[in-house]
Every structure is written in C-alpha cells, then in structure tokens.
Amino acid sequence: MARGNKVHINLVFIGHVDHGKSTTVGRLLYDSGNVDEATMRKLTEEAKNLGKAGFEFAFVMDKLKEERERGVTIDLAHKRFETDKYYFTIIDAPGHKDFVKNMITGAAQADAGVLVVAANDGVMAQTKEHVFLARTLGVNQLIISVNKMDMKGYDQKVFESVKAEVEKLLKTIGYVPEKIQFVPTAAFPGTNIAKKQDKMAWYKGPTLLEAINNLLPPDKPTQLPLRLPIQDVYNITGIGVVPVGRVETGIMKVGDKVIIVPGREGKGVHGEVKTIEMHHEQMAQAEPGDNVGFSVKGIGKKDIARGDVLGPESNVPSVATEFTAQMIVLNHPTVITVGYTPVFHVHTAQVACQVTEITKKLNPATGETLQEKPDFIKNGDAAIVKIKPIQPLCIEKQKEIPQMARFAVRDSGATVAAGMCIDLVKKQF
Fold first, then answer.
1. CA distance linking residue 238 with residue 131, whole number of Å
2. DSSP code of residue 321
3. Could you tell me if 337 and 414 lie in one domain?
C-alpha cells in the first residue's frame, strides 16, 4: 500500500482495562480490509487453543506471546492502516494499571485519540486518568467509542447516560464536548466499527471508521527546529546502529549534521544522517509525526539510549540542569513537598527529578496565584515548581517547542502529576 501523499495521523486508543480497546482496533483493521481473512482465521484458531475464544481481534494487536496468554496488552503496538483520506499509525495503548508508563509514551506520540468506554461499566478510575493524560500530553482531538453496546441490548438510554457521564469528565479538564464525536459500538460482533448496522436504528451518526476519517489533519510544526526523541537503539547487521523514534518538530534530511544529547557521557554525540526509513520504505526526509528508523555515521550503540534527543548541530536540544514547571497534582496519596523525588516522563525519557521549590499555588481554572511559597500541594492543586533532574534531561520551554515541554510524573505505579516546562537553566555543551 503506497503512502502516496496522504496526511499521516498517529491515533492512540486509550481507556480502562477490558473495555475492549484491542478488540476494537483488531475489528477496525479487519473490517476495513487492512487484515486479511487468512490471518484472521489463524488468530481465531489460536485464540480457541489458548482458551481465549473471543480474543481473536485483540490478537491482531497483541502480538507478544505473554500478552496472548494473559489476555492483556503490555507494550505499545504500532500498526498502519489507510482510509481514502488518511494514512494512520494506530497505537494501541495498555489500559492496565502497571502499564500506564507505556501508555504515557503512546499518548505523547499521538495526534488524536479514541477513548473506549464500556457501556456496562461507564467511566472508571483509569478512564479518568487516561483522559487527563491525553489532555496534558497534548492530544487535542478525541473520539469516544461507547463500546459493548451488545451487552446492554443496544439501548439508547444506556448510550445517552454514558455519554453524559463522559461529557462531564471532559468538561472538567478543558475538552469541548461539542467538538467530540461519540459513537455507540460493539466491537466483538462488529457493530458500527467499520460497517453500518441495523441494531441501533436510533443512532444516525458516523461509524467509528467514519468518525476517524472526520478527524482534522494535525498541524505539522515543520518550522520549528528538528527534535527527535530516541525510542530505541538497534544494532542491525550490515547497517550498524539504527536509532528509532518519532520526529516531534522540524524536518530531518539525509545528509544532515546532527547531535544527540545528552548521550552516554552527557556531552552530546555528533553524527551525520545516512539513511531514513519508515515502514520499510526509504525516505529522503522525515517530518513531524513520522515514526522512523535511521542510521547515523559516527555513532556507536553504546553512545546513545532511549530518552536522548536528536537535533541539528546548529540548534542543540536543551539539556536542563534545572527547570521551572507548571504542574497539576492528579493523584498523590498524601501531599507533595520540597525534596520529593519521583520519576518524570518527558517524551521518551524517564528521569528521577527533585522538587526544589514550590514557588506558588495557582487556581487550575484561571491560572491566578492563590498562595506564594506554600508548604505543600495536594490533589487538584496547580502550582509553579522548580525541579532538579538527578541526571541530565532534555526538555524545552512550552513557548519555544511545546511538543518537547510536556511531562507526566509517576510514583510507585501511579501517575501523580502532569505539567509543562515554562523555563529552564541550560547545560552548556
């Protein structure tokens, strides 16, 4: 399937565990002709043999053996699919609590999201956490799939009540419900995913596939300096070191002189881009939103790692020795005080950082100052804080490169806060 000149959109599927995300994605790919009959037959067979009949559509995305045996999505799966209008990379993000950190990486790469909410459960704890993260990480377009309608007899009242519940949640965090498409679906039987159905004659709106096709193309920040956070580094026989990541801003061209920071020694590593490829096709350049693998002359496997950021030699990505952030506390068991040192997730980096000062507490809705230098902040509070990374960390100011400014804060298995960098002290190279 040629990409042609279709606009590329990264689409993340999010939602509470067992609400049917993977099944929705599998069904979507199958019904839209992006997965063939033979593959589907094999997966159905395999699902039966593992005593997981009913999981065959989920298996399209859940490729890891362990995931198939446990029936949960662990890592992010990427799959491409096309409509007449767009070329999508689907990111199926785990809903399971232990896996939220992978979900953060997924959402940070997404242009738009589909939130799957089961009609029989409605809004759950993780539905809230995922929506909040999506918002903080800059996923501006959402579609809500109210799934498992078959378990509720395709009842319009059930759909309306779940819709109202989700709208209330969306409003509290700054999404505009009027701009959001709500679609009633039943992914396992395939109702209203890619095919029109007769089970819900009361519903006149789009199928999930049509709703996805209604998304607006994302802005491509090509005018900003090149920033590409490294996701993985592979060593490929005959080619050498191949870093993989998604271009956040700017354009990367073959022949570019680049620097990757902080790098192993914390001094930055210089190189020249030799090749770029996406979905096994060679490209002369990569743009924002492209998930690419590339080879760089002059860089060894041990020189760079996940969380490093590539930029042009003429505009080195910022490595912060400390930074100032605007942050919202989402879910902390007690309170956050000076000295608190959780793990910050910024693009693909995960670095422990210490809160060195709580400068002021803000009204989360208006941003006005409520209190200077409070002793602590707790759930629901917004604040300006000073942060010191324990090791070098790449982050940019919100007003300069917003795509590289957002972060989530995690502690003992939960997302406790989220925010963005508004100022920083740069390490000099």
1. 43
2. E
3. yes
∠ CA 70-189-179, rounded to 5° = 95
Q: Are residues 204 and 331 in the same domain?
A: no
> What HEC string does 37-101 produce?
HHHHHHHHHHHHHCCCCCCHHHHHHCCCHHHHHHCCCCCCEEEEEECCCEEEEEEECCCCHHHHH
205 and 240 housed in the same domain: no
Tokens 């992978």, residue? 102
Instruction: Give me the pLDDT at residue 174, please.
Output: 78
Average pLDDT over residues 346-364: 91
Mean pLDDT score, 92-107: 47
Rounded distance, CA 56 to CA 179, Å? Answer: 33
- Please indicate, yes or no, whether residues 201 and 69 belong to a single structural domain of this protein: yes
pLDDT of 39 over the 80 cut? no
Region 184-192 average pLDDT: 91
Query: Which range has the top average pLDDT, 49-58, 292-301, 385-394?
Result: 385-394
C-alpha distances in angstroms, 155 versus 152, 186, 211, 408? 6, 12, 21, 38
Give the CATH number of the domain where residue 98 resides: 3.40.50.300
Looking at the fold, whether 16 and 115 belong to one and the same domain comes out as yes
Let me know whether 170 and 285 are in one domain.
Answer: no
Dihedral of CA atoms 336, 338, 341, 343 in degrees, nearest 10, equals 60
Q: 247 and 307 share a domain?
A: yes
| Cα 11-12-15 angle, rounded to 5 deg | 145
Domain that residue 389 falls in: 319-426
DSSP type of residue 415: E
Q: What CATH number does residue 363 fall under? A: 2.40.30.10
Report residue 382's pLDDT band, with 50, 70 and 90 as the boundaries.
Answer: confident
Helix, coil or strand: residue 282: strand
